[in-house]
């Protein structure tokens, strides 16, 4: 009997590899569309690009969610982004298949880069906070002193009193 905790390392990496293959095939579809090459694979590969490019960019922005919720929200967000790009292009009378592929690719690239920049900025801020909050491991010669030189007169007198009684 297999439980949820019996995941092998190859089983965990499979969805990531599958997503990479889908993005690669989508990239081939975008290249076929932009080059104007007639192929029976052009339409399905381009459709895969129109879904996977924005979904990959949105998936990076949704790092706090678990895998299934992240995939569903990234897919829905990708469809919404595709529809918004198509609506904007139709409203401005600039619709073309090549233009749509370029626009979706550009918006996905900007989103992907902004998420990457944000995560780098957050990592730097975390490192700075951690460096400020952690105690120093090296000490300078000025800060080290022996306990006898810093004792107060009251402590010295109490030591004398206890030693004379004993």
Write the layout of secondary structure elements.
Elements: H1 9-35, H2 42-61, H3 67-91, H4 97-133, H5 153-165
Helix pairs in contact: 1-2, 2-3, 2-4, 3-4
Describe the structure.
The longest helix has 37 residues, at 97-133. The protein is mainly alpha-helical. The relative contact order is 0.08. The radius of gyration is 31 Å and the shape is elongated. It has 5 helices and no strands. Helix 2 (42-61) crosses helix 3 (67-91) and helix 2 (42-61) runs parallel beside helix 4 (97-133).
* Total DSSP helices: 5
The sequence of SSEs as H and E is HHHHH
Mean pLDDT: 79
- Terminal CA distance reads 74 Å
| Number of β-strand runs | 0
The parts where pLDDT drops under 50 for at least 5 residues are none
Tell me what portion of residues adopts beta-strand conformation.
under 5%
Q: Radius of gyration in whole Å, from Cα?
A: 31 Å
Structural class: mainly alpha
Biggest beta sheet attributes: none
Q: Kindly state the percentage of residues in helix.
A: over 70%
How would you describe the shape? elongated
Give a brief description.
This protein is an all-alpha fold and 166 residues long. α1 packs across α2 (42-61), α2 (42-61) packs across α3 (67-91) and α2 (42-61) runs parallel beside α4 (97-133). It has helices at 9-35, 42-61, 67-91, 97-133, 153-165.
Task: Considering the chains and any ligands shown, give keywords for the structure.
single chain, 166 residues, mainly alpha, 5 helices, elongated
């Amino acid at each position: 009997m297999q439980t949820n905790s019996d995941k092998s390392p190859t089983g965990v990496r499979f969805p990531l590899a599958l997503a990479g293959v889908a993005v690669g095939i989508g990239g081939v579809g975008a290249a076929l569309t932009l080059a104007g090459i007639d192929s029976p694979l052009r339409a399905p590969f381009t459709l895969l690009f129109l879904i996977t490019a924005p979904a990959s960019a949105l998936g990076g922005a949704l790092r706090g969610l678990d895998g299934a919720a992240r995939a569903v929200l990234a897919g829905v967000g990708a469809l919404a982004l595709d529809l918004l790009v198509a609506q904007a292009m139709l409203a401005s009378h600039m619709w073309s298949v090549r233009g749509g592929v370029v626009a979706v690719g550009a918006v996905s690239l900007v989103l992907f880069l902004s998420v990457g920049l944000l995560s780098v900025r957050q990592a730097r801020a975390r490192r700075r906070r951690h460096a400020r909050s952690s105690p120093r491991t090296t000490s300078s010669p000025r800060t080290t002193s022996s306990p006898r030189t810093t004792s107060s007169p009251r402590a010295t007198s109490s030591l004398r009193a206890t030693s004379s009684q004993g």
